[in-house]
Amino acid sequence: MKKRKIYICLIAIFALAVFGVAIVLPEYLNQSIEYINDFQTKTLRAQILEIPHIPVIPFKLGLDLQGGSQLIYDADLQSVEKKEKSEVMQGLRDVIERRINLFGVREPIVRVEEKGERKQLVVELPGIKNAQAIEMIGKTPYLEFKEEKTKEEIDQILERQKNGETITEDFYFRSTNLTGKYLKKAELDFGQTALEPQVALEFNEEGAKIFEDLTSRNVDKRVAIYIDNVLISAPVVREAISGGKAQISGKFTINEAKELVRNLNAGALPVPIKLIYQDIVGPTLGKISLEKSLQAGVYGFLAVALFMILVYRVSGFLASVSLLIYGIILLSLFKLIPVTLTLAGIGGAILSVGMAVDANVLNFERKREELKQGETFLVAVEKSFSRSWPAVRDSHFTALMIALIMFSFGTNFVKGFALALSLGILASLFSALFITRIFLMVFVGTRLEKIKWLWTR
């Protein structure tokens, strides 16, 4: 490799490092930029070139580092066909996410998890520890329309009850597929005669068709309206209703009607949910976890750098600088993607440091053997990287494959670890095979390459 090309690569490496520092620590660079801009104004009496500030991108921290709340809801899918369960759960996730956005929660995480046959909704609310807000998020009403059962069906249920069977189903009404997921909007209205507050509903196009079919087959029968499995009203249908509009009346106060309208517009749930787990992580605990994680990372890096310098001398020092740049690149990737950092993710990132060191050790051991056999410094460097590449490739790509499998099939906790480890592995390959190599090539043809004790024991 020609010297000119080496120097170009060296400049590119340090430019990348400066860019990484600007992403990771923009506050310090912005202070310098402000100083330069103020200097131009006060000393030169003019802004020759105003340097813009670097945008500040915060790290996306998980609950265990930032503090907040985790809620797990169990979804009742008994009345949903198997082929529609995934679609219903995604609709449930979207509704809860919209509901959370009303509270201005920053970076909420709402995801669906499967526990055997059960499907659960996991909600993570960074920075939210207000019990009332948490209660309101899960309080979104479940709206459902039911049609009247026949006399024969009711008699059969009563007979089963007489025989000692425990009855859990509704005695008088059966569920239909018209639920809150088809609701377009809800409005506060008042009855034309008694001027009592009521709730006017308007369904979307699909819901309007379902509502028309429901009223068509139930003329002169009752259609019951349930909210959160509580019967609100059961009006008699006089004729088929087209246009997708209905009304809910149930002796509401004005405040109760307004609250119902607000909650329905925030999103009526397509299926009932039940809060089965709640965990609140305080900001102090999260701060302590973050500080200890950062300390572990710093101490680990210093220990590795000291080992590399003591064992491999100048090569070890160059590898340590390479590792420092690797750390800057990895942290900037965490911000730019962005990656939600958890304790598990930080553990994966620190583990990838070991992968980077492993690649450098293989290269340096091979280089030392080549130098002992009398090869020139240039030949030793080139042979060390080419001959150690198969071992480095196999170890890194095997770890990367395992990380991808963990990310595909693991829980959210495991996915955070796998994603951080994957990015760390890719960054470590770049660090060990490109950055360290360029640093070593800088010394080719210099006096330092001839001082063998700097490179071998």
Structure, briefly:
By secondary structure, this protein is α+β, with helices and mostly antiparallel strands.
CATH-defined architecture of the largest domain: 2-Layer Sandwich
Helix content: 55-70%
Low-confidence stretches: none
Going across the biggest sheet, name each strand in turn. 3-4-2-12
CATH topology of the largest domain: Gyrase A, domain 2
State the secondary-structure class. Answer: alpha+beta
Count the beta strands. Answer: 13
How would the global form be characterised? elongated
Descriptive notes:
With 457 residues, the chain is of the alpha+beta class. It folds into 3 domains: 1-56, no CATH class; 68-280, Gyrase A, domain 2, CATH 3.30.1360.200; 282-454, Up-down Bundle (Multidrug efflux transporter AcrB transmembrane fold), CATH 1.20.1640. The chain has 13 helices and 13 strands. The protein has helices at residues 3-24, 26-43, 63-66, 85-101, 131-137, 151-162, 205-216, 254-267, 283-312, 314-336, 343-372, 377-409, 412-441, and strands at residues 60-61, 68-75, 109-115, 118-126, 143-148, 173-179, 183-190, 197-203, 223-227, 230-233, 245-248, 273-281, 340-341. Helix 1 crosses helix 10, helix 9 packs parallel to helix 11 and helix 11 (343-372) packs parallel to helix 13 (412-441). The radius of gyration is 33 Å and the shape is elongated. The protein starts with a helix and ends in a 16-residue tail after the last helix. 33% of the residues are buried. The model has no long low-confidence stretch (mean pLDDT 84).
